[in-house]
Amino acid sequence: METKELIISAIGAFIAVAMAGFFSNVILETTDSPLIIASAGASAMLMFGLPHAPVSRPWNLIGGHMVSAIVGVTCYYLISDTLLATSIAIPVALVAMHLLKCMHPPGGATAVTAIIGGEAIHQLGYIFVVIPIFFNSLILLIVAISVASFRDKNPFEDLL
To answer: Are 64 and 47 in contact (CB under 8 A)?
Structure first.
């Protein structure tokens, strides 16, 4: 990545994570949601640092996080032991993402967040999949596509 591309990508990552974090904080009505930010931060590293990698494609970003969130919430509801729920959620999310062809490694953090994320997240239940996970992913994607138009010669090449 050239210096200009790197600077544009870094600015894009900042904007995307700040927007996703702000959205999460407003939805969760808290200023302390580091696990949501961690998941968005990991995705931003891929979307802006490795924009042409297969795991950075739109379906991988959106689908990977949503599938992982569903798995995480389900494990939280079905398994009372946190360590066991987390230990099961990760491989189940991995297999689900593989089968649905939406592998996105930060999805693992999303699954874990659904289990250990605290009362604000637990109160959301399956709404967590849409608000904030889907919307955070969508924010990252929109900013990544916008940044790609400044950074790349053909910004939509990997979308096809």
So the answer is: no
Dist. CA 70–CA 111, nearest whole Å:
8
Establish if 160 belongs to a structural domain: no
Which amino acid is located at 47 in the chain?
M
- List the domain range (segments joined by +) for residue 18: 3-152
Please state whether the predicted TM-score (pTM) of the whole model is above 0.85: yes
- Asked if 40 and 28 touch (Cβ cutoff 8 Å), the reply is no
CA distances (Å), origin 27, targets 36, 89, 104:
11, 24, 24
Please answer whether residues 105 and 55 qualify as being in contact, where contact means their C-beta atoms are separated by less than 8 angstroms: yes
DSSP-assigned letter for residue 156: T
Structural domain includes residue 159: no
pLDDT single digits (tens) 86-113: 999 999 999 999 999 999 999 999 999 9
Structural domains in the chain (count): 1
Q: How far apart are CA 43 and CA 41, in angstroms?
A: 5
